[in-house]
Amino acid sequence: AAEPWPENAALYQQLKEEQILLSDNASSLAVQAFLQMCNLPVRVICRANAEYMSPSGKVPFIHVGNQVVSELGPIVQFVKAKGHSLSDGLDEVQKAEMKAYMELVNNMLLTAELYLQWCDDVTVEEITHPRYGSPYPWPLNRILSYQKQWEVRRKMKAIGWAGKTLEQVLEDVDQCCHALSQRLGTQPYFFNKQPTELDALVFGHLFTILTTQLITDELSEKVKNYSNLTAFCRRIEQQYFEGHEKDSSATAARSSKRSLLR
């Protein structure tokens, strides 16, 4: 815990251009934003088998010294043990509120992204299967895609999302954005002047939704209805990504789609 943060810390995710999906890209960007906010340098390494390299089977994961830690929650705890925290200035009530909003984002936005990727038939056939299986030869590419689809759909069934229509899922996204917009108000960050883990998580998901080309723009339109949320994404992109690392996911994501954050 007392060891300083090494210069060669690395964050692993899937291949950016041809493989990574919306939900994993959002999760990876949230971790990158969190580390930037903590002023901890990390190099992004893209690997076709990142998902299988991860100790939890989920991306992103970081490799720091001899430690490998995956997903935002455990990474936040790991970084805190090294003496870096974004939420130390919050009181207990604020910390509880922050956790509640982070749960909301994971339960609504992340689940909606997974639903869209693996349960919307058009998206599955045109985007998800080709991208997810892209590094692998036939028939392995299809086998791995169907395996993942089965796994995600089983999860959707367990949490009661399997029977939802796309319209209902988009309505859930709208409700989540409305709650976030209300909480943010005119503040620069969710808890006034300093960013917390919540800001990193919200940025990762909203920015990725705004900059990912899907079959239709229905998902990004839900976010664009809230001008303070799009301004929030632009502010964090400018402050923590522009001019930092040219290869950052935020810069790469934004250049891959027409300018959305006007």
Query: In angstroms, what is the radius of gyration?
Result: 18 Å
SS-based class: alpha+beta
How many separate structural domains? Answer: 1
**Percent in helix:** 55-70%
Describe the structure.
With 262 residues, the chain is of the alpha+beta class. It has a single domain (10-244), classed as Up-down Bundle (Glutathione S-transferase Yfyf (Class Pi), Chain A, domain 2). It contains 11 helices and 4 strands; from the N terminus they run βαβαββααααααααα. It has helices at 22-37, 50-53, 72-81, 92-119, 121-132, 140-158, 166-184, 197-211, 218-224, 227-240, 249-255; strands spanning 10-13, 43-46, 61-64, 67-70. It has a 4-stranded mixed sheet, with helices on one face. A hairpin with a 2-residue loop joins strand 3 (61-64) and strand 4 (67-70). Helix 4 packs across helix 6 (140-158), helix 7 packs parallel to helix 9 and helix 8 (197-211) crosses helix 10 (227-240). The longest helix is centred in the middle third of the chain and has 28 residues, at 92-119. It is globular, with a radius of gyration of 18 Å. Mean pLDDT is 91; it is low at 254-262. It is found in: Mitochondrion outer membrane.
Provide tags for this entry.
262 residues, alpha+beta, Glutathione S-transferase Yfyf (Class Pi), Chain A, domain 2, four-stranded mixed β-sheet, 11 helices, 6% strand, disordered C terminus, Sam37/metaxin_N, Mito_Protein_Transport_Metaxin, protein transport, membrane
